[in-house]
Amino acid sequence: MKTEFREKIESSWEELLAGESTLPVSDLKSMLDHVGIPLPNYKVRNLVEELGKNGVTEGERLSKEQFEKLCEDLDADNVSKTFRTTKQHDVDAKKFEGHMGAQHFVRHEEEQAFADWINKRLGKDKDVVHFLPLSKDGGDMYEKMDDGVILCKMINLASPDTIDERVLNKGKNISIFKRHENVTLAIKSAQAIGCTVIGMDSHNLQSTEGKKWMVMGLVWQIIKMFLFNQITISNVPGLVNLLREGEDISELMKLSPEQLLLRWVNYQLEKAGSERRIANFGQDIKDSEIYTDLIAQIAPKTSGVNKTAMQKSDLTERAETMLEQAEKIDCRSFVTAKDVVQGQETLNLAFVANLFNNFPGLDPPAQEVDIIEETREEKMYRNWMNSLGVEPRVNYLYSDLYDGIIIFKIYDIIKAGTVNWDKVNTKYSGLSARKYQQILENCNYAVLLGKKLNFVLVGIAGSDIMDGNKNLTLALVWQMMRAYTLSLLAQLNPDGTPIVESEIINWANTKLAQGQKNISIKHFQDKTNKTALPILHLVDVIKPGSIDYGMVKQSDNLTNEECLSNAKYAINIARKIGAPVYALPEDITEVKHKMVMTVYASLMLADLN
Q1: Lowest mean pLDDT among 358-372, 542-556, 569-583, 588-602
Q2: CA dist., res. 407 & res. 404, Å (int)
Q3: Where are the alpha helices (DSSP H) in 329-375?
Q4: Which of 145, 312, 532, 603 could form a disulfide bond with 318, CB atoms 3.0-4.6 angstroms apart?
Q5: Within a 10 A sphere around the Cβ of 322, how many other Cβ atoms?
Q6: Mean pLDDT for the chain?
Q7: How far apart are CA 175 and CA 186, in angstroms?
Q8: How many CA atoms lie within 13 A of 517 on its CB side?
């Protein structure tokens, strides 16, 4: 179980059950709510019934250890939700038993599709060639991912240069210790780019643990990120063609990649003269008619694509003929004819995303448009929020926070029980004036709770959040991230008292002195941080021998390029020892003091762990 989550359980137990060794089953729901695992009443009832059947409860009470195990399993379930199966899972999936009788499913088709993607994308990579190709059924994927190298390579495909390969342990026979380092690096790097990794560590992702659903959940998140990262206005300006009457570019920014793909398919269908429209990637595509029209519309005229699939009355034969057309434009990926006919949403979503990335078929805008580019800071905050597992995912910072719901969820992660959900409007009126008032009430409540969490919100009103005021929204989000980081440290503090920034600096300098490092920092704005040398030396003290000083540039007058090289190495080596670093190398070389603080805080967290 992730350490900070275990600490949350500890603090909740101390607050609600001080001195008690067991938890009354009647209080299970309130305790789960307090630790940040809210469940509907009916699910709690089913859970209690299951616990009784399995003989887990003792006289209608749960021991602390049993409650921790239950939370671990429910937390793992949260990860596996990123990798849903369809109702077909009983027939087409392998079933795994988790703790407390929980069931997890891994679909054969998804194993095959993901293995095929890995083979195609990494087949020529010299660092993993001894593992590839993976078997056609994907069954050997788990064992071959044990050393973390394939996972790290996948992350760099999804988000180039996230992992500095100088820190990657490579080779055919990597020691167990170095394997765990690689997997830790992969998990922390995936977290930094917005993947949900709750409940994952370098041990439970090992094939010997048998938690295939957890590995597949991470693999799918990375592949999906690879596919979706190209679906942006900056990459494909022609996406402006998908705007509806009365909309402007900011409206496109609010849409998730899935929503953009649905619009794109319908746009192409309209151009093709089809009367069909798509609302999902499951039921609506089963007869292959939409796919047949779509592929014919976007394919180059010289590709030889045709619509003969529609002459087939058998749906499986029709799907196979349609896929033969996709093969003509080198887009037969992710799905089989069976997956199409069964409406397997995960793989059909991937299939459509791949079609878009190869043949968007969108004319550039007739007039120059002002493209809204996501800043480095905005992207980092968005990735941080998404890594916490908040639902729905944050696609555009300002529009997705406008009603306060995601803010409330993060408040409860920072400090369980902060939000009184009875005061939150989660369902809105059909009357626009009343809906406006309900959302404003939420945002005003968000500001009020922020002040109770000791945020400095001078000049920030609820209307600023609702209207997406960029500077003021960023000010709030930064304080949420800072509070979250410091709350993790407070949970590990022996006396449970809050940690302040000056204590982080004192800790860092004390560690550096203990390690006989001739360097220190006065504050987070200290220009010495530009070289990343204090961070690198600190990592070496926390985990002696982890730094290869042959990789480090050291002199009194380092160039900007040398500083950036050090910063890249520092961030990656920090993640490799388990520090949850979200900052980018440029944040260090530019001495962005807020982000520099989070780097030191994450290292303190890794040290205390």
Answers
A1: 358-372
A2: 5
A3: 337-342, 345-358
A4: 312
A5: 31
A6: 89
A7: 17
A8: 21
Q: Return the closest-CA partner of residue 65 out of 113, 136, 150, 6.
A: 6
Cβ neighbours of residue 448 closer than 8 Å, sequence gap 6 or more:
none
Cα torsion 392, 394, 398, 404: sign: positive
Two structure tokens written together for 350: 């991937």
Q: What CA–CA distance (Å, rounded) separates 351 from 220?
A: 13
Structure tokens at 433: 């004036």
Per DSSP, 340 falls in state H
C-alpha 9/C-alpha 602 separation (Å) is 20
Residue among 105, 109, 89 nearest 333 (CA): 109
* Strand (E) or helix (H) holding 24: strand 22-24
**Burial degree of 503 (CB within 10 A; 0-12, 13-18, 19+):** middle
Highest mean pLDDT among 127-131, 233-237, 368-372: 127-131
Task: Give the range among 82-91, 350-359, 465-474, 492-501 with minimum mean pLDDT.
Answer: 82-91
State how far the alpha carbon of 58 is from the alpha carbons of 21, 25, 28, 49, 531, in Å: 12, 9, 14, 13, 57
- Which residues, in sequence order, are bridge partners of residue 103? 97
The mean per-residue pLDDT over the stretch 126-146 comes to 95
Sequence-distant contacts of 227-230: CB under 8 A, at least 24 apart: 227/257, 227/350, 227/353, 227/354, 227/357, 228/257, 228/353, 229/158, 229/159, 230/356, 230/357
Half-sphere exposure of 61 (CA within 13 A, CB side): 9
Distances (CA, A) of 19 to 64, 357, 538: 11, 58, 38
Which sign does the torsion angle of CA 42, 48, 52, 56 carry? Answer: positive
- Residue carrying structure tokens 């067991």: 22
Q: For 291-320, how does the pLDDT look when each residue is reduced to its tens digit (9 = 90+)?
A: 999 999 999 999 999 999 999 999 999 999
Secondary structure of 60-122 in HEC code, one letter for each residue: CEEEHHHHHHHHHHHHHHHHHCCCCCCCCHHHHEEEEECHHHCEEEEEHHHHHHHHHHHHHHH
Peptide bond into 133 cis (omega under 30): yes
Bridge partners (DSSP) of residue 107 are: 93
Confidence label for 98 from pLDDT (cuts 50, 70 and 90): low
Among 578, 541, 580, 500, residue whose Cα is nearest residue 193:
580
Across 414-424, b (16+ Cβ under 10 Å) vs e yields bbbeebeeeeb
